[in-house]
Amino acid sequence: MTIPNSYRALPDERGHFGEFGGRYVAETLMPLILSLEQAYRSAKADPAFQAQFDDLLEHYVGRPSPLYYAERLTEELRKDAGLGKGAQIWFKRDELNHTGAHKINNCIGQILLAIRMGKTRIIAETGAGQHGVATATVCARFGLPCVIYMGAKDVERQQPNVFRMKLLGAEVRAVESGARTLKDAMNEALRDWVANVGDTFYIIGTAAGPHPYPELVRDFQSVIGREAREQMQARTGRLPDLLVAAIGGGSNAIGLFHPFLDDKDVAMLGVEAAGEGLDARHAASLAGGVPGVLHGNKTYLLQDEDGQIAEAHSISAGLDYPGIGPEHSWLKDIGRVDYTAVTDRQALDAFQLLCRTEGIIPALEPSHAIAAVAEKARDMDENAIILANLCGRGDKDIFTVAEALGVKI
Amino acid sequence: MNSPVPMTPVEGAAAQLDRLAAAFANARAEGRAALVTFVTAGDGDTAANLDALVAGGADIVELGMPFTDPMADGPAIQAANLRSLARGTTTADILAIATGFRQRHPNVPLILMGYANPMLRRGAEWFAGAARDAGADGVICVDIPPEEDGALGPALRETGLHLVRLATPTTDTARLPRVVDGASGFLYYVSVAGITGLQQAAQDSIEAAVARLKSATDLPIAVGFGVRTPDQAAAIGRVADGVVVGSAIVEIIAKHSVDAPAAVTEYVAGLARALRAEEG
């Protein structure tokens, strides 16, 4: 069943990545999950589906996204590196996608699947609003009605994205239950789905949730890694030494990592949000959590000793989630990918560093990755190549950053 | 292999089992459906409210285990979960509530109902043992379908507790045997595709569903989700072996706070009378 010596053969037919993943859903949803899996299997094997996906990615999303050598950032970081140290830093520019982040890749794939299944109504959850905007975008593009669930707290702090979603014709429902953030939005989307099983497709925004979501989101996002692998070989004649990506649920990271998993000389680093520090409020499920069951899958979760889910915290609303995609949990446990965590403060510093050295305003999510890159680059040989995923642009975050820096705008 | 009939008591647990089977048999002997009632542990004076359910005529009691993320529940039970957790309710508290209930009511079946994560946190074996020691008769776990039941179901069976499974309007005939396999105690029919406490299913759809389930299992069938009025309970009781009422009771507890037990007894008594009026 599994291909020996491959890290790319999972999940198994029951949706498991080792002990992680699975389909922990209410019985009402189970038949839907099974039919979604069937539909996805058939779509995956259908060249016409793939052709339509590729066509939309090229002409609507703007792929392939560039692979960019960040020369000034590389030089800047070499200033305090030792002799012969300071790796080359390259970025996969997924922030240049239509809607400004990697989220759209997955939304294109899922809406094509929804249409293929004959569904006529779309729902989604969103934290920062990036996935909500991407979902609203594809719904406008295909003329399907769309309801976006968003925690009431996130609605307050992400007003520009709320307005964007409304402009795109989506109905945004503020979720008042629980902690009023992303996990509660996901609960509410699941409640909607369970009550509208006949006509509704749930576009999950990250590589988590019940099987087959972690697999299909990964597959749709793997365009990032496939392109990057080809581009890097074409530009440098080799593969990168280290891949770095930020992780909330982990969809941009798994999208970058997955096509490289069997390249044994390519190291990988996933960067979680350490918030105010791992001993304070944070969102680093792998660093500070233990395995448990939430939102349809078994994975590392921030939780207390009774299994109650903790509230995550990160300056980046997109990383503010107490769980993580199950494939990352598995990759951590088997040791194929390293994971680290970066604080709000470190991410803010990296955000400003990239603005000044490269003329790129990154989102706060990849700012976490950039902070980890800066740390790593100094200790690596100057011929080494680090490839980081610049998974979103920072326009949405300028108010948050201004506030954190004490600037009134 | 798993048998679709009520399980026989295991040695050692024989003294207490099988309260569930007895409760259904007793109701059947009276020519009526069993009344199954639900409260959330730690929401209000749970001991007093549990006593109030029994005083009102409940045959079987479900004790909800609060969870931070009750995604299958509607607003009433969500709010009860959060009220309970805000008061600091722990798993130990829930088990203590169950233990107290068992001491006061040696013969009333008690089912723990909740979500996977709190049940699996210390391991399925630990939970099954703790539930048995607290005097529970069975467990309903909302988000462990048969496909993922590699740990909890076996642990409960090993311990001699019932695993009560849920069937829903979306559980088709092809899938039903899978749901029934490994289920025991009773089969809980979730009569609407949705969350707790909101919509009500049409009576004819319930009748058709119960008939379908009966053809797949000998387990008693209890019907719940959206059941509020004595008339509804009576109508469902004509075709099902049990009627489950949850959100309506939880709302009464929220509304009456310290005076809840009297109101709960009065409400449950109304349901019990309606089921008994259908006798014969």
Describe the structure.
The complex is a heterodimer of chains A (409) and B (280). Helix content of chain A is 43%, strand content 17%. Chain A is of the alpha/beta class. In chain A, the strands form three sheets. A six-stranded mixed beta sheet of chain A has the order 3-4-14-9-10-13, sandwiched between helices. A four-stranded antiparallel beta sheet of chain A has the order 1-2-12-11. Chain A has a four-stranded parallel beta sheet with strand order 7-6-5-8, sandwiched between helices. The radius of gyration of chain A is 20 Å and the shape is globular. With 280 residues, chain B is an alpha/beta fold. In chain B, strands 5-4-3-2-1-9-8-7-6 form a nine-stranded parallel beta sheet. Chains A and B meet through strand 2, helix 1, helix 8 and strand 11 of A and helix 3, helix 5 and strand 6 of B.
Keyword list:
heterodimer; A: 409 residues; alpha/beta; Rossmann fold; 2 domains; six-stranded mixed beta sheet; four-stranded antiparallel beta sheet; 16 helices; globular; B: 280 residues; TIM Barrel; nine-stranded parallel beta sheet; 12 helices; 9 strands; 45% helix; disordered N terminus; amino-acid biosynthesis (chain A); TrpB-like_PALP (chain A); tryptophan synthase activity (chain A); Trp_synth_beta (chain A); TrpB-like_PALP_sf (chain A)
The first-to-last residue Cα distance of chain B is 37 Å
Helix fraction of chain A by DSSP (H/I, runs of at least 4): 40-55%
Overall number of structural domains of chain B: 1
In DSSP terms (H or I, runs of 4 or more residues), the helix count of chain A works out at 16
Oligomer: heterodimer
Q: Over all CA atoms, what is the radius of gyration of chain B?
A: 17 Å
For the secondary structure, the number of strands of chain A is: 14
Widest sheet of chain A: strand order?
3-4-14-9-10-13
What is the number of beta strands of chain B?
9
Question: Count of helical segments of chain B?
Answer: 12
Measured between the Cα atoms of the first and last residue of chain A, the distance is: 57 Å
